[in-house]
Amino acid sequence: MKVLLVNGSPRKNGNTDRALEECAAVLGQEGIETEIIWIGAQAIRGCTACGACSRNGDCRCIFDDDIVNPLIRKAAEADGYIFGSPVYYAGLNGSLKSLMDRMFYAGGAVMRQKPAAGIACARRAGATITADEINKFFQINGMPVVSSTYWNIVHGRGAGEVEGDGEGLQTMRNLARSMAWLLKCIQAGAQAGIAAPELERGTMTNMVRGDLIDGAN
Q1: Where does the pLDDT of residue 57 fall: very low under 50, low under 70, confident under 90, or very high at 90 and above?
Q2: pTM (global) more than 0.70
Q3: pLDDT at position 146
Q4: Per-residue pLDDT, 211
């Protein structure tokens, strides 16, 4: 089994990475393979809602000049995911948001029903909002959201400051243990013949209808 950890910070070896490393170490102790991917400091274009990814049928974004498609391919080989982001204006890093928009639109099928968690690193506030924002990608994709013993957040600004957040690092370790436990439960269930649920798809209801707004308030 393998967990893919995604570092959404522009700083490769900053506090967000340190939190992911804490998770990876415990997952390794639990016999789970890990890989941490840094998305880099270069701009990642946002989704243009062109719809090409839904038509090409191969879980690939039409824009093929950045990390999104390679990361979708790596995601297809993983059994679980942890996405980490620094906190800016009480929300996740813009590059990570652009990446996840395109990654889930184009490649959501390869991650569906696999466990995942979002973690956030902040100097002070906005971390719970950011972690929740990440988790919403998983919730809409039928993915079990993995929890810990506190919100999945750590605190620190300058490089290395997260080392002073003992509870935050403890939360990361417990998150990793919960992830390993859930992966092993899913594996045991599959071996016992318990398959993932069949999900209904295809029904979409628009909340605003043209016949209700033509000529009326």
Answers
A1: confident
A2: yes
A3: 98
A4: 56
